[in-house]
Target: Translation factor GUF1 homolog, mitochondrial
Amino acid sequence: MPKRVDSCRGKCLRCNRHILYGFCNTSFQLYDFRVNCSRWVSTKRHVGLSSLKGNKPWLWLGKHLLHVGYSRSIIFPVSLSMAEISTHSKGEEQTIENVSPQQIRNFCIIAHIDHGKSTLADRLLQLTNTVSNRDMKEQFLDSMDLERERGITIKLQTARMSYTAADGKQYILNLIDTPGHVDFSYEVSRSLVACEGAILVVDASQGVEAQTLANVYLASESGLEIIPVLNKVDLPSAEPLRVKQEIEQMIGLDTSDCLEISAKTGKNVEKVLEYIVEYIPPPKDRSDAPLRALIFDSYYDSYRGVIVYFRIFDGILETGRKIRFMNSQKDFETVEIGVLAPHQVSVARLGPGEVGYLVAGIKTVQDARVGDTITLASQPAHSPLAGYKEAKPMVFCGLYPADADQFEDLREALERLKLNDSALSYEPESSSAMGFGFRCGFLGLLHMEIVCERLSREYGLDLVTTSPSVGYYVHLEKKSPLLIQNPCELPEPHLIDHIEEPYVRLEIITPSEFVGSLMELTQSRRGIFQDMKYITATRTSLIYELPLAELVTNFFDLVKSRSRGYASMEYHWSGYRVGDLVKLEVAVNGEKVDALCNIVHRDKAYSIARALTERLKELIPRQQFRIPVQGMIGSRVIASEHIPALRKDVLAKCYGGDISRKKKLLKKQAEGKKKMKAIGKVDVPQEAFRAMLSLKQTDD
Ligand SMILES: Nc1nc2c(ncn2[C@@H]2O[C@H](COP(=O)(O)OP(=O)(O)OP(=O)(O)O)[C@@H](O)[C@H]2O)c(=O)[nH]1
Model:
């Protein structure tokens, strides 16, 4: 391939307006250029034959003419030389040099939530001068407003840092910061595949938590070198010795030379950089092999189309080359490739081991799916790299615009969010109580909360959400099973043979004194006990199989409150199990409210129905007539409440007088109320739809 040796810049001779930038290859033919700093265009199609016009050589670039000159010191094989009008000043492209894989280290930071990943990433960016002190802000890589406000990482983030190590050599360190919350663990698994090593951050005051273990398992499954680091040693409550012991006992990592750092104060953070260079293996040098690069993230930019983040395993990628996505078998021409330093900086080529981005005029994220392999269309690789399991939505809820006119806006907003969030799913549905809306699928409750918040903040939508539910497999007699994501769709009981519900394998790590209370909670949520391990003298791990439906209704909050915040939990999908489940419906004033329908375990149906009707009685405003609120399974009423009518003193104006007159007035009032009840419609307030959620909390 031609090697880029120099760049040039000049005005178009024809229009005298456009500035043209170009790069020369080894034979000093311009091989790619751009107009007015906008997109790069391959010159293969655009450069016309060069010619000399008097002493002023010029060159066609598409419809533009570039004025060029000679350098007399070198004899060129072609008539044209490097452009000399103005040599491209130190532009971004030239600051990034291609490096050999030996000088590259790809690593990610993994930890339990809030153990200090993003803070450590901040310090590393500062130490390597990737971000100047002036531009530095807390949690630099968390770019979403929501991430910064809540102090959590939602999306994985990448940054390329340049570091001169103690051995005097310069290294390129590609960092991937990952989220800690269990809902986003699929982001973690994606980033792990792009790395050779992981820094495992453990809070020295808290120790090994459930998510620490889960992430370590993921990292060792991917064959990564794990470097444990104790963070927050500046805290008075830090117990580095105890935590080191925990790491050795629970994870089995040697902690004899484990670093004790404070990401907040910067103590010992520079040593982390040395450890990365020393312990994390460099990527393999397979530059001669056909290109294979793994897509680990992508997002949609309204100006440039889909931006794909990838890691190259084999071969070389250059701007202007035609690439192919091996799974979707779609071809695109790369308009720009570059690295994330941490902002996008374009480069001409990237070699094996490099992490970068590319722009190729891709219109939908579906064309460049995360987990797909990029290869060259002209020299495709034989087989794609092992991708990822697709993120599967686990929790579903209905989203309805409070104002029916906003339905189309909601559709548009969901379409846009979906472009950058492949785990989100949605399909239209309608409800008699709430009109038209969408049934959306999320990875977990936090994911759901974040999507709802983004919809209201970024798109100004006022939404009503129904209580979250999970997906059930309903086996009908002599028919193939149905997947039900909306409880209202559950067929009549006599048609159902059995129902299967999703289960998760749950691990809770807790100080031993809270074990009893947490076991009680888990059992009340239909948990099936699997194992209990004493990890250290004071900490215990509990393992349960738990229905996902029980977990999504604020189980995590209860675990936290019962353990005074000290327990942590982690779960992953473990399969479907048969459950004795029924559809619990609610009728208000004789009319079933479909948005309040839910699938619950038969044993709990009565208590939930009772609590729900009581709660609705408080929430639904009183009307002129008496309103019955009933919880029902099929046509059987299992709980009932009445909202009393508003009373108007129709006798107020009767001073004394005849009793028959009073009776007449009261009779007239009773008749009026009866009529109103027959034609009256009860508006169920929005809070009522969330009642189900809060109910199950009180239920425990
Ligand atoms: N005292 C002290 N506080 C720290 C240190 N490192 C991080 N913190 C604080 O711990 C909190 C969590 O830090 P983050 O860096 O956001 O943690 P995280 O692991 O990235 O969190 P998620 O992205 O949500 O998983 C913040 O309030 C930090 O200021 C440290 O070394 N010492």
In short: The first strand starts at residue 6 and ends at 11. Residues 1-5, 36-57, 69-96, 696-700 have pLDDT under 50 and may be disordered. Residues 659-679 form the longest helix (21 residues).
